[in-house]
Amino acid sequence: MALFKLRREATAPSAPAPVEALLKGYSIEVMPRTAEKVASFRDLLPAGTRVYIAHIDGTPIDEMVATAKRLNAEGFPVMPHFPARIIKDRATLADWIARYQGEANVRQGLILAGGLRAPQGDFHSSMQLLETGLFDGFERLHVAGHPEGSKDIDPDGSDRMVMEALRWKQAFADRTDAKMAIATQFCFEPDPVIAWAERLAAEGIRLPIHIGIAGPAKLQTMIKFAVACGVGPSMRVLQKRAMDVTKLLLPYEPTDFVNGIAAHKAKNHMFGIESVHFFPLGGIKANAEWVTANGGRSGIPANLEEKVEA
Predict the structure, then answer these.
(1) pTM of the predicted model, to two decimals?
(2) Which of these, 258, 227, 223, lies nearest to 240 by C-alpha position?
(3) 68 touches 30 (CB < 8 A)
(4) Strand bridging mode 273-279 / 209-214
(5) Residues with Cβ within 8 Å of residue 187, at least 6 apart in sequence
(6) In this predicted model, which residue has the larger pLDDT, 16 or 89?
(7) Is the pLDDT score of 185 beyond 80?
(8) What is the DSSP letter of 118?
């Protein structure tokens, strides 16, 4: 009996063209313990979605590699975190890289200092990791960005050290063949982010920006994570919402933020924000479903994109 493949295009909710364009090729962040709760990422994420794996201090490398292996098997490019301050030494870093590459076909990495104040080993900055040369075989390397500054890096409240680090990373990108981008902390207001991106361009930092966005979550959850992650002035968006009793019990959604960035990008085609990176603070499923509902064709999960029937 002959088998015939029938293609069925999944229907997607309509979305404003600028929003659909901005959300195309978005990425999302998971941890091993949150990934375990997802039965199938292909039911939630569009084909080819880049999935970052956050490496929290204390997470065994075995769990990190196993999560990367699972995601790679489902067809998603994986970008694990390499936090400098939790890596003991060069040998440990080399072992992590060898395991990721050998067991999970990892060719991408987010290189960052990490949230610890004191290093646990030989490294204290992302620049030191990049200088080891151990990432030479990687196709893509992302580095951290802080649109509202970082008190961990610049305790005086300025952004002097943050900007100096970005200039170093731009110079590194210029002398290597790695595809690089800046993945930022999440924020809640579009205008300060737009101004920050334009300032980078004016200072000669040309690395594409993948802007961090907090996915849908309860307001209390959002405030807790925002405080813990050192979100700056844009916290006022959450504070204002908390004072409105009509919105207090409703989940926060990033609709206004996304609309603002998308509208600016549509009018300024050379704008440095290239893509969106989601922090699914209210859960991976809730975040993915928000993108599916708001992103038009950019949000169609892989398993809905094409059906094959006998």
Answers:
(1) 0.88
(2) 223
(3) no
(4) parallel
(5) 147, 148, 193, 211, 212, 231, 232, 234, 257
(6) 89
(7) yes
(8) S
Distance of CA 170 to the CA centre of its chain: 19
Rounded Cα gap, residues 231 and 148, in angstroms: 7
Highest mean pLDDT among 7-21, 62-76, 269-283, 293-307: 62-76
Q: What are 78's strand-pairing partners? A: 51
| Measured CA distances, 291 to 101, 196, 264 (Å) | 30, 25, 19
CA distance 51 to 31: 10
What H or E segment, with its residue span, contains residue 140?
strand 140-145
| Cβ–Cβ under 8 Å, residues 92 and 125 | no
- Residue pointed to by tokens 């979605």: 49
Radius of gyration of the chain (CA): 20
pLDDT at 76: 98
**Count of other CB atoms within 10 angstroms of residue 122:** 15
**Distance, C-alpha 86 to centroid of its chain:** 20
* Residue 231 pLDDT exceeds 50: yes
Q: DSSP class of residue 232?
A: -
Let me know the angle formed at the C-alpha of 291 by 287 and 297, rounded to the nearest 5 degrees.
155
213 burial type by CB count under 10 A (0-12 exposed, 13-18 middle, 19+ buried): buried
